[in-house]
Amino acid sequence: MKVMQLAAPGGFENLKLADLPAPSAPAAGEIQVRIHASSLNYHDLGVVRRPGAAADGRIPMADGAGVVTAVGAGVSEFSVGDAVVSTFFPQWLSGRKVPSDFQLVPGDGVDGFARELVNLPATSFTHAPKGWSHAEAATLTTAGLTAWRALVVDGGIQAGDTVLVLGTGGVSIFALQMAKSMGAQVIATTSSHAKAEQLKALGADVVINYQDTPEWGDAVLAATGGRGADIVVEVGGPGTLPQSIRACAVGGHIALIGVLTGIAGAVPTLELMRKQQTLKGLIVGSREQQQDMVRALENFGWKPVIDSRYPLEKMVDAFTHQAAGKHFGKICLEY
After folding, report:
1. Which residue from 20, 74, 167, 256 lies 20 to 30 Å from 192 (Cα-Cα)?
2. Residue 259: is its pLDDT beyond 90?
3. 257: which residues sit within 8 A by CB, 6+ positions away?
4. Average pLDDT over residues 27-44
């Protein structure tokens, strides 16, 4: 089977296509899945590009979607032919005992889905939404579930809320689409006039260019009559958090997801406290939350926005495109 492997010490130049033996029949409790698609996340980019981030020979990619080709003894949830999608934290099935490291995350602490065939415990997958392609389903493992948890699980979104999304990456676009489906108003930020039009086409009610308007927190307040956003999907990190706090409503919720502007920085704690906001970090979600999300997505009339598609052997080109930051939505691998 075709596999992409990352040789130590990492870097694009050390991503190589290999031919490895296909796995045998799945053991008890396992399913065998023919993987047909994956999608790129900044987590995957960091693993591949950061020196020493992964073990020698690691198979990258946290997201995987495909078809069940064999079922081990004792598995009743899946049948041969089912379309499935992987989970980010295979050990986190449900509950509040959240993982705090990436030791068991596919493509990071263990081998991921940049391969054609895999045997894993059945609990490492959920059903994919009915009628979705493998590439569309592959966007859910990381980006889709992150947006779902930010809005629904942690944010408690309600119809009539205002949601602020930053930029045009996978999580932000998912959050825009989900929030609009749930009856919310959406304000989005971007630095691109062309992307602003794309955001409006997806339903964004207000788009703010953060290069033209560096104090975009005030612009959000102005657009909401001084109230602010009920939920902020904060993917930037320390460089954008002060403006997100400014933009967020009194009693609002800020879902802290990304580190695009760094891993540490100053926080205007007085404003956060005075406005009695909730600032909560999150990393993706549980298998149960993914199952809830899939059921909801089957009732919505939209599909994920896929910017571009690459074959498995062109993974370096896909990551190069991602690193350039010009994409809108998700970048996928299909194989």
Report:
1. 256
2. no
3. 146, 150, 171, 233, 234, 235, 281, 282
4. 98
